[in-house]
Amino acid sequence: MKIRIISGVTLLAVVATTFIFGGYPLIAFCCLTSVVSFYELTKAMGVIGDKVFNGLSVTGYIGILVYYFILFFKPEWENKDMVFILLIALVLANLAVYVFTFPRYNAGQAVASVFSVIYAPFLFSYIYKIRTDFEMGAYLVFLVLAASSASDAGAYFIGVAIGKHKLAPVLSPKKTIEGAIGGILTAAVIAGVYGYFCAINGVGDMELIWQFAVASAVGSVISQVGDLAASAIKRDYSIKDYGWIIPGHGGAMDRIDSIVVVAPIIYYAFMISIG
Predict the structure, then answer these.
(1) pTM above 0.90?
(2) Which of 18, 99, 147, 254 registers the highest number of CB atoms within 10 A of its CB?
(3) If we measure between CA atoms, which residue out of 121, 115, 68, 67 comes closest to residue 91?
(4) What is the pLDDT of residues 87-113, one digit of tens each?
(5) Which residues of 176-204 are buried (b: 16+ CB within 10 A; e: fewer)?
(6) DSSP conformational letter for 47
(7) Would you give the DSSP letter of residue 237?
(8) Which DSSP category does 79 fall into?
């Protein structure tokens, strides 16, 4: 427990620091986390076995690094369909590896490799995009934590206190419908309070209260789906944790399974409301 608490506090400090400073620290954090998460996912789903590199994973690593290069050094390329071109190139590269090394890999491994790039690295990059693309990005990026971490905490404590009806008994027997609702309400309240303090400190107007609350509530719903989806993958492949990189917590994917699905929701929610 002591190790879990220490590593958790250290991780939170690193995340908060990169969120605050943005720029090089944040892009480096997002890229590194994405690479590690891709490795964990491909290992879990049997793409790479006990290795770090093989034909399918190399295309994924290259795709991730090129994508983050575009995000940081050539952000204007995103408006020229470069990201879609990159995804198409990744699919074609995986098909080429699959075909020309047949039967070394099966179709499931080829699909899982592409899925692993989109699921963690691509979705997680929205953390950087939120921080960079919005004028109040330095504040808005913390809303992702409210919609994921606060939701998890609220769901846990309220579920323990009053939870009776199982939410997904096969995947996660301890999760309850009452806990899920509690997580949504907790995320909304925490985000609303955060929006209030942002507003009174000149970040925006009082509309931030309900905007943050609604976005966080929706994010909480998606967060819980993301958490269950990550658990389903682990059940499919009979593993307890995705990795070991965070002592007491498991792998990177064990910590960001909610965040990766929340970040795009927060990004587009405010992109639409501002636009």
Answers:
(1) yes
(2) 147
(3) 115
(4) 999 999 999 999 999 999 999 999 999
(5) bebbbbbbbbbbbbbbbebbeebbeeeeb
(6) S
(7) T
(8) G
